[in-house]
Amino acid sequence: MKKIVFLSNSYTIQGGGERSLVQLIEYIKDKYEIFVYVKREGELSKALHNLGVKVFFSELSWSRKIKKQISNYINLFKVYLAVKKIKPNLIYVNSGDINPFGVRLSRLLNVNIITHIRDVFDFPKKDKYLFHKSNAIIADSNIVKEMVSNFNNKVEIIYNGIDKNKFKFYTYEEKKVKKQSLFGDFFLVANIGTIVEKKGFLEFVEVANKICKVLKDIKFLIIGSPKPKEELFLANLKERIKIYNLENRICFMGFIEEIDKILPLIDILLFPTRKEAFGRVIIEAFASGVPVISTYSGGPQEIIENRKDGFLVKVGDIQGMYDAVIELYRNKDLYEYIRKNAYKKFLENFTIDNIAQKITRIIENLSS
Predict the structure, then answer these.
(1) pTM of the complete model
(2) φ, ψ for residue 252 (rounded to 5)?
(3) Model confidence pLDDT, tens digit, residues 114-131
(4) Which tens digit of pLDDT belongs to each residue from 151-194?
(5) Rounded-to-integer distance, Cα 352 and Cα 163, Å
């Protein structure tokens, strides 16, 4: 059985990249012997342990600061000595930011490396990420492929995928009954993701303020938690909600690990992201029969066909988001049309079975 070492410099499963990694490993773990390096113990390591794979801990970033160079090489040498005993057939890097570490490790081990890029970077003139030394690059959207192609032409777009059996597609009546005990009779609009400014949470609050002035049976949910360095942004967000006197209309629900239990109960996903490589939560909404309103911000416009299986508006267009929410709220025929088309697109394009088969083909071609 071939051995694959996965590298992830995270420890949570809040981001779409980590959730996608767990699902990929779950799909292929019986075909390969899997070893995973993560930043430290946390939700990610717990999920991987539950899959029965071997998990190790290390800092995998590669700082460009001169004073960090010694610690860079110490970490690299420690991981190299441990992984050398495994004798892997392939190194699989789960994000672009740890590509420099992964490339150096693969060169020491003399094995091929796949870099899976799931985010949008601002590149300097020099390819500091060493993408040109990856044997293959998987990009999760066309915007990512265009970004990386200047450094490496071995790039293949493979969208993120999810388990078609995990999320439930409820009828209107089923959803109404199931959400009654948790949320009452309110129409629910949510934004889901790590609470950072680029995910459009400020815009989300502005839309909520505008809508709450005309609709009384609607609530807005913020599902997610901030990164450690984003506590100030969260405080500012809560202060704005307080100024608008919307504490009872906008609810913070924190990070929910089993998002599949809540997402199918939501009526609209409002995702006003400013810049997005893909937007995994969009296809999770598709799988749940939840209409999505998002932005022309990269990945979302590759997933959504405007007014057929979702809505797209310009980044920062508060009025456009407002109009889309109101239209879906009032037009039940349009609401059903959008969500059924979205679910059909999910089944045809974004199931983990389809995605994992494409990734497995690349792994087989490169694993020695």
Answers:
(1) 0.90
(2) -90, 120
(3) 999 988 877 655 567 888
(4) 888 999 999 999 989 999 999 889 989 998 889 999 999 999 99
(5) 5
In a domain? residue 167: no
Q: Domain of 135: which CATH number? A: 3.40.50.2000
Give the sheet arrangement for strand 136-139, strand by strand.
54-57, 33-38, 3-7, 90-93, 112-117, 136-139, 155-157
8 A C-beta contact, residue 43 and residue 13: yes
Q: List the structure tokens of 53.
A: 């794979």
Residues 278 and 297 occupy one common structural domain: yes
Question: b/e map of 260-287 (b: 16 or more CB within 10 Å)?
Answer: bebbbbbbbbbbbbbebbbbbbbbbbbb
Q: Which domain holds residue 182?
A: 172-349
What pLDDT is stored for residue 172 in this prediction? 85
The model's pLDDT over 244-291, given as tens digits with 9 standing for 90+, comes to: 999 999 999 999 989 999 999 999 999 999 999 899 999 999 999 999
Say if 166 falls within a structural domain: no
Find out whether 41 and 11 touch, Cβ atoms under 8 Å.
yes
CA dist 326 and 29 (Å) reads: 45
- Cβ atoms of 190 and 226 closer than 8 Å: no
pLDDT of the residue at 106: 97
Provide the number of structural domains found in the chain.
2
Cβ neighbourhood burial of 3 (10 Å; 0-12, 13-18, 19+): middle
